[in-house]
Amino acid sequence: MNVQVQKDLLVQQILSLQDSFLIEKLQNFLNKEITSDWYNELSYRDKNAIEKSVVQADKNQTISHEEVMKRVKLKIKNMKNGD
């Protein structure tokens, strides 16, 4: 189901609502989703990790996905072998 169809169905559901409490809850939810920035809800530790990663990326201190996968597979293999 594409996004436009989902939106049309949602509009129809909203238009059929009769419960003012539910409508108010929906409004509050949508207002919060529109105005909130998920970054502000992250923990201090998560924000620091993201900022550290950005600095590392700016300095080209990155590892490719392929390299990460090689390292992970090697660690798993070593764990299975008891190393």
Quaternary arrangement of the chains shown? single chain
Mean pLDDT: 91
The H-and-E topology, N to C, reads as HHHH
Measured between the Cα atoms of the first and last residue, the distance is 48 Å
Radius of gyration: 23 Å
The residue ranges in which pLDDT falls below 50 over 5 or more consecutive positions are none
Q: What is the total tally of β strands?
A: 0
Shape field: elongated
The helix count comes to 4
Task: Briefly note the structural class of the backbone.
Answer: mainly alpha
Percent range for β-strand residues: under 5%
Please give the largest β-sheet.
Answer: none
Q: Could you estimate the helical fraction of the residues in percent?
A: over 70%
Word description of this protein:
With 83 residues, the protein is an all-alpha fold. 73% of the residues lie in helices and 0% in strands. It has a domain at 3-39. The N and C termini lie far apart (48 Å).
Give the helices and strands, then pairings.
Blueprint: H1 3-16, H2 20-35, H3 44-58, H4 65-80
Précis, in short:
With 83 residues, the protein is mainly alpha-helical. It is built from four helices and no strands.
